[in-house]
Q: What sequence folds into this?
């Protein structure tokens, strides 16, 4: 059985440490090095094979890392300068400063103290570059983010005016904030919704208004945070299942939205996907035009047919008015 694959980030960190480690231990047994690095000998050999094609730009003789094998022992014969301390050029240092400043302002980010310590070290090393007139602006209402974050930190309940696009409606509700977090490019408030009697995720840019209440936030014991490792939308069997026939120009939806099944046939794909609400599906699919045909469920087919007829009637009305002769003609 092959060894389990490690995440890319873990492997990168291991590769960066591998050359200095081997330089300090020429002729070390591969099995011994693997044990020190907490990997299998097979994985370590794969890492060494990858190191052979790593090095400096130019990638010719003398630019790449080289090593020598003697049976089950390995020795680094050329390190390509990877043992030298990292030196950032001005552009790289400024990019790191801007990225860390943005990260420090992102809601829901943990270990903010560690971010600020790292930022302080890089700003100190960057010198005058750290004071460059670069504005860091996140794609969201910063004042709203700051106020919602302050309410969460203060432990107060909130009254929200919230827009739900799936139902195309605006509602008012009282929530008990639990945390703020960022998923993808959007900031969310996760809270216990007293109206729904369940934990809900509220996208910050869809909060039309909010009021901090004097009462404390008291989520009940059943208020469990969502697992957002796979995204905010987690389709389940309880949601409506929609079946579509999709032409060439509509295939992008299979990459942008979670789908359960894609059957690829010449000329069209048959796609099934879960949706939170049939009303949202109706508005979404009507906007895709004739390249997507709804197969089911029957109630969605009927809703789209009615919407299409209503739209055609709107186009027909001006034509009827134009056929009438102008007054006084």
A:
């Amino acid at each position: 059985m092959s060894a389990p694959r490690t995440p890319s980030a873990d492997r990168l960190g291991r590769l960066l440490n591998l050359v200095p480690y081997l330089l300090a231990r020429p002729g070390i047994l591969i099995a011994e090095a693997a044990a020190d690095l907490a990997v299998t000998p097979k994985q370590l050999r794969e890492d060494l094979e990858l190191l052979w094609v790593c090095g400096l730009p130019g990638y010719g003789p003398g630019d790449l890392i080289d090593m020598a094998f003697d049976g089950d022992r390995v020795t680094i014969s050329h390190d390509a300068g990877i043992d030298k301390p990292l030196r950032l050029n001005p552009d790289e240092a400024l990019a790191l400063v801007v990225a860390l400043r943005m990260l420090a302002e992102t809601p829901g980010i943990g270990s903010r103290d560690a971010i600020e310590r790292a930022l302080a070290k890089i700003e100190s090393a960057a010198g005058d570059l750290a004071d460059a007139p670069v504005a860091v602006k996140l794609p969201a209402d910063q004042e709203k983010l700051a106020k919602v974050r302050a309410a969460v930190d203060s432990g107060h309940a909130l009254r929200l005016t919230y827009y739900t696009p799936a139902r195309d409606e605006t509602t008012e509700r009282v929530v008990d904030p639990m945390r703020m977090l960022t998923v993808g490019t959007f900031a969310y408030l996760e809270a216990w919704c007293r109206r729904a009697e369940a934990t809900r995720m509220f996208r910050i840019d869809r909060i039309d208004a909010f009021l901090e209440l004097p009462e404390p936030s008291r989520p009940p014991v059943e208020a469990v945070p969502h697992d957002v490792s796979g995204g905010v939308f987690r389709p389940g069997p309880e949601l409506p299942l929609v079946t579509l026939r999709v032409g060439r120009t509509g295939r992008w939806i299979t990459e942008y939205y979670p789908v359960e099944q894609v059957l690829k046939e010449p000329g069209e794909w048959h796609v099934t996907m879960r949706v939170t609400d049939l009303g949202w599906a109706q508005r979404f699919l009507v906007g895709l035009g004739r390249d997507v045909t709804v197969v089911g469920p029957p109630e969605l087919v009927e809703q789209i047919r009615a919407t299409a007829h209503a739209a055609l009637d709107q186009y027909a009305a001006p034509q009827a008015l134009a056929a009438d002769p102008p007054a006084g003609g």
